[in-house]
């Protein structure tokens, strides 16, 4: 599958509420649609003119993982799109054949809590080519992007971004939950999203990083600090080849038709791989595995559909440091030992600081 073909599958999945990713978009073609989740999957495999020989790509994928011990990942967050009780009841009346649970259709992406009210995630979870409709952000975001991109240096305040009201209604952040089927934890509305200025849907390989700001619906709920805690950013040199890292998410766990995410938070350990070796394994050019990413893989273990934007941390790190976020990989979930590609957080430390330190 070429990247262009993958984008076509994204578009086909849009009307079905398919969560981010392209690997199983064809298999999701059914009449069961929900207006509140009708949005295209992130453009993790958009066409790239400079990459005619590019290999299949997907938005990020945990296969071969184990359950995260309780309290072991207090920074883990979920981005989801809420389906109201009334809409869900109507959907079930209209589509009595529906077997998917509501939480499965609501799940969108993973993320990491890096500040009191900011989540770090992947850019492709937030924005897609406006010609193929919207994502988390409304279509008019593209025209107003420079105006609302929060920046200390650019003197764009958070309040300007919030006032623009460019986030689609219903998108929320969940903190402090390890089983998203329970609909527990603390949830907040997303009122601003910041896509890295260098990321475009036409080039999935560079600058796949974004931030979402969230706010309470009313009075901020008290937080269980041991269960909800920010993670530090790794700002050092890229980890050397062979470094053990751990990735976490609610993504797909089996090579079966459909989206089929995991309700419980899973983790898997991977080893950092040489960029040139990685590009060769994935069948892409070296330029598509730039210095701002890291590759990691292990036989029988990989990230999968639905893990996008989730955290990559140093294995057994004390304290933990966020070293990467789930970006892209080959579009199948299988024990083929092919590596995944993860945006390297350290390469964007200055940009992250510029956003977080902007005027409120």
Structure description:
- The structure is a single chain.
- With about 350 residues, this protein is of the alpha+beta class.
- It has a domain at about 230-345: Thrombin, subunit H.
- Helix content is about 15%, strand content about 20%.
- A 6-stranded antiparallel barrel has the order 9-10-11-14-13-12.
- A hairpin with a 6-residue loop joins strand 12 (about 310-315) and strand 13 (about 320-330).
- The longest helix is centred in the first third of the chain and has 12 residues, at about 5-15.
Give the C-alpha Rg.
18 Å
**Number of separate strands:** 14
**Total count of helical runs of at least 4 residues:** 7
The helix-strand sequence is HEEHHEEHHEEEEEEHEEEEH
Helix share bin? 10-25%
